[in-house]
UniProtKB/TrEMBL annotation:
Pfam families membership: DUF4395
Annotated ranges, domain DUF4395: 20-154
Superkingdom to which the source organism belongs: Bacteria
Keyword field: Membrane, Transmembrane, Transmembrane helix
InterPro entries reported in the protein's UniProt record: DUF4395
Annotated TM spans: 26-44, 97-115, 121-146, 182-200
Protein name listed in UniProt: DUF4395 domain-containing protein
């Protein structure tokens, strides 16, 4: 019974209980797809039905992860997809802390999207934060919650994904030369500008796009848009 409730798995050669990072990343990718579909359904179709089901699953799943990850549905799905891959072990303690942060975000979202439906930009922002955390974990194996773990816990995390918790010297293939640095910076600028230009030029077809445009556009630009609309309506009235 004690082993049943033990958090993480005993793995020969490791001094702490471990989890399989590969199945955690696979699970994060599955949840990211669900969150993305819920967001696009809300923006494009104006319905939150998919999000309500997904957030319910998300909250239950992360609660299971914190209590006993052996039985968390998304982790079991992730295990199915990576069952033929060599496990990549990660310390269970920091993953539990990171998943606890996800659970703390999940239950308020459940309340405001399922029980007492009150959508607003702040709740959308929380969803985007969750999506960002899932994306970073699935795409780059970067666990931001694990990094916070090291800031608040006296005992530092060990056996992190990619051995980032252990001090080491970067290999030549991991370093950037000056030209590569310039390319990365220009790419990042182009991506941020593209996202900004896209959000500010979207047609005002949903409440979300209206609010996002209002947040990201200057007062002068908003006034110019309103003036153009007024002029267009005046011309239409003349006809």
């Amino acid at each position: 019974m004690k082993e049943f409730f033990a958090y993480g798995e005993k793995v020969p050669g490791y001094d702490v209980r471990m989890l399989n990072e590969r199945e955690a990343r696979a699970a994060a990718a599955i949840l990211f797809v669900g969150a993305f579909l819920g967001l696009t359904n809300g923006v494009m179709l104006g319905t939150a039905v998919f999000s309500e089901y997904f957030v319910s699953f998300f909250a239950i799943d992360f609660t299971m992860r914190v209590i006993q990850p052996r039985y968390a549905p998304s982790l079991l799905l992730g295990r199915f997809f990576v069952r033929n891959q060599t496990p990549e072990y990660v310390g269970a303690a920091q993953k539990r802390f990171a998943w606890a942060l996800g659970m703390i975000l999940a239950w308020p979202m459940f309340y405001y999207l399922v029980i007492d439906f009150q959508p607003n930009p702040l709740k959308v922002l929380v969803c985007l934060i969750c999506m960002g955390l899932l994306f970073f974990e699935s795409a780059f194996s970067v666990c931001l919650g694990c990094k916070i773990f090291n800031l608040v816990k006296r005992e530092k995390a060990t056996h992190c994904p990619g051995d980032v918790c252990e001090m080491k010297i970067k290999e030549p293939i991991q370093r950037f030369n000056p030209i590569q640095k310039i390319i990365v910076i220009l790419t990042a600028i182009a991506m941020f500008y593209g996202a900004f230009a896209y959000m500010t030029k979207l047609p005002d077809r949903t409440n979300l796009t209206k609010k996002m445009k209002k947040i990201m556009t200057s007062d002068a630009e908003l006034q110019r848009i309103e003036d153009e609309k007024a002029d267009q309506e005046f011309e239409n009235d003349d006809f």
